[in-house]
């Protein structure tokens, strides 16, 4: 009887047909984890015997792939190489791949691409920053506080490069 009531109630509401056609929007963070981590200080202990004058080189990359039905892994890879600004000797090299599993449904095409390329990395980056800061401190160096990153702008630049690449090859 309850099933009959639910079915008849559903048939009386407007928009039910369109609701059945569109999958329900779902976005849920399933897990955050470190996929890969590395810290090297190739010139220790000599690097600690001179004044610390850092020159920071930073590389940032994001990737994503579908690992199940509606389940996506997003990885933010951050590499920071800090060298002495005068001698050029490497003080330390730190690399972190911060990953997350996201359950996403009801989002397709360009919106899904944008979610995986900008929104998810924005969720993961603070964890990568904290991990890097912790590793650098444990390595005996002053904290390396990375500035926030605008993944929206990075995603827009990537899409612009792709559009220019497609336009020049055709």
From TrEMBL:
SUPFAM superfamilies: SecB-like (SSF54611). It holds the Pfam family SecB. Keywords: Chaperone, Cytoplasm, Protein transport, Translocation, Transport. GO terms for biological process: protein folding; protein tetramerization; protein transport. One of its GO terms (cellular component) is cytoplasm. Residues 1-22 are annotated as: Disordered. It is found in: Cytoplasm. Its main location: cytoplasm. The keyword Protein transport applies. HAMAP family: SecB. Homotetramer, a dimer of dimers. One homotetramer interacts with 1 SecA dimer. One of the proteins required for the normal export of preproteins out of the cell cytoplasm. It is a molecular chaperone that binds to a subset of precursor proteins, maintaining them in a translocation-competent state. It also specifically binds to its receptor SecA. PANTHER family: PROTEIN-EXPORT PROTEIN SECB (PTHR36918:SF1), PTHR36918. Belongs to the SecB family. This is Protein-export protein SecB. It comes from Litchfieldella anticariensis (strain DSM 16096 / CECT 5854 / CIP 108499 / LMG 22089 / FP35).
């Amino acid at each position: 009887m309850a099933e009959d009531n639910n079915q008849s109630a559903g048939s009386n509401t407007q928009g039910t047909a369109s609701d059945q056609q569109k999958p329900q929007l779902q976005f849920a963070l399933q897990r955050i984890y470190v996929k890969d981590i590395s810290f090297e200080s190739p010139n220790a202990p000599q690097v600690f015997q001179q004044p610390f004058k850092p020159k920071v080189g930073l590389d940032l990359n994001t990737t994503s792939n579908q690992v199940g039905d509606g389940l996506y892994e997003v990885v933010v890879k951050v590499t920071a190489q800090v060298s002495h600004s005068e001698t050029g000797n490497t003080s330390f090299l730190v690399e972190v791949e911060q990953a997350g599993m996201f359950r996403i449904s009801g989002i397709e095409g360009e919106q899904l691409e944008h979610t995986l390329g900008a929104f998810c990395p924005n969720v993961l980056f603070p964890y990568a920053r904290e991990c890097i800061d912790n590793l650098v401190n444990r390595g005996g160096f002053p904290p390396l506080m990375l500035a926030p990153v605008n993944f929206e702008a990075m995603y827009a630049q990537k899409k612009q490069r792709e559009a220019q690449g497609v336009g020049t090859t055709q």
